[in-house]
Amino acid sequence: MSNETNRRDFLGYTFAAVAAVGGAASLVGMKKAWDPLPSVLSSGFTEFDLSAVKAGHPSTIMWRGKPVFILKKTADMQPNKRDLIINGDRYTIAIGLCTHLGCIPAWKKTKWKCPCHGGEFNASGEEIFGPPPRPLDLPPFSISGTKIVLGEEGPEYKKIAAAMKA
Ligand code: FES
């Protein structure tokens, strides 16, 4: 009788252990399936060190398949409500797609000029000539020290976005 009980207990514990291992393995599998792919994670956020930017020479970085212009303004460029100010330096951050029909404007000394229909944007990304109906769009970003992280809405982004709407 006691041998029978021990045998049943043993079988019960064995089944419980197998079920626990199987359950844990299933959870790990499900988590892997739900987590975003590494390619999605890397395309969602793009980090860029602003201290590497030379004043007057915009950098173009790719974020989620779109060009983003980052211009450190020179002293003679007009301040603007959409300037990102870090350590006293002013930056223009803008999605580099013309707001008319989406061509990529090129930097011409002091402004961006669109090759498609001649639209122009000043160093602050504001439309100053031609058919573009509005300024270059602002990408969501956050700031960490001198680094900009494209893809997340930090307080600096929210402040500039609100100023642009006002
Ligand atoms: S697409 Fe830029 S002016 Fe038309």
Automatic annotation (TrEMBL):
The chain crosses the membrane at residues 12-30. Keywords: 2Fe-2S, Disulfide bond, Iron, Iron-sulfur, Membrane, Metal-binding, Molybdenum, Oxidoreductase, Transmembrane, Transmembrane helix. Its cofactor is [2Fe-2S] cluster. It is an enzyme of class 1 (oxidoreductase). Residues 98-150 form the Rieske domain. Its EC number is 1.10.2.2. Coiled coil: none annotated. InterPro entries: Rieske_2Fe-2S (IPR017941), Rieske_2Fe-2S_sf (IPR036922), Rieske_Fe-S_prot (IPR014349), Rieske_Fe-S_prot_C (IPR005805), TAT_signal (IPR006311), TAT_signal_bac_arc (IPR019546), Ubiq_cytC_Rdtase_Fe-S_su_TAT (IPR019470). The keyword Transferase does not apply. The keyword Iron-sulfur applies. GO terms for cellular component: membrane. GO terms for molecular function: 2 iron, 2 sulfur cluster binding; metal ion binding; oxidoreductase activity; quinol-cytochrome-c reductase activity. PANTHER family: CYTOCHROME B-C1 COMPLEX SUBUNIT RIESKE, MITOCHONDRIAL. Belongs to the Rieske iron-sulfur protein family. This is Ubiquinol cytochrome c oxidoreductase PetABC, [2Fe-2S] subunit. It comes from Malaciobacter molluscorum LMG 25693.
